[in-house]
Amino acid sequence: MTAELLIAFVLFAFVTSITPGPNNMMLLASGVNFGLRRSLPHMLGISLGFMVLVLAVGLGLGQLFEQLPALYGVLRYAGAAYLLYLAWKIAQAGAPDSPDGGRSRPFSFLQAAAFQWVNPKAWVMAIGAITTYTPQENFAVNVLLIAALFALVNCPSVGLWTLTGSLLRNWLNNPRVLRCFNIGMALLLVASLYPILLDSKGTL
Known about the structure:
Keywords: Cell membrane, Membrane, Transmembrane, Transmembrane helix. Its main location: membrane. It is a multi-pass membrane protein. It holds the Pfam family LysE. It is built from eight helices and no strands. The protein has helices at about 5-20, 20-65, 70-90, 110-115, 120-135, 140-170, 175-190, 195. It is globular, with a radius of gyration of 17 Å. The protein is an all-alpha fold.
């Protein structure tokens, strides 16, 4: 991989990781509701789960979608339905220690990693990274490099959203304010489905 291509890919990875999307909306809400430390497994699950997804796409799953485009459509709408379910859970969440606190714990590492496989935007980004930035020469090595770099760029990028949420925590001690925040995050999560359904290249 040339230096120019490497720089272009790192920029691509940063922009798609730092801008709003389902993962970042969920991490912002997690930072507010559970704090930075308890949200660390969620952050790591996103980065490493997405890395595995990029590897899988690069090593063969991308060709499966080319041969069976309807399969991608099924995945896209199944993922959208799951995102709507998560938005509902976020909207219903109260303070973590309240009797009606909804989701009483943040995503685990495995839950966050598994979520990448039903996140349509993650699939679009993984396919884009492999098809656009991975040279055919020494293809397998370049796939490994692309996946590792994406994880390295992604983790601190999504971490900023979690940190922002944790910093807002003290401002959201009022249960009513927290409920309004969670409803707002749920609506933003639903709004993030718009580019998915239009097949645009959204963010992670």
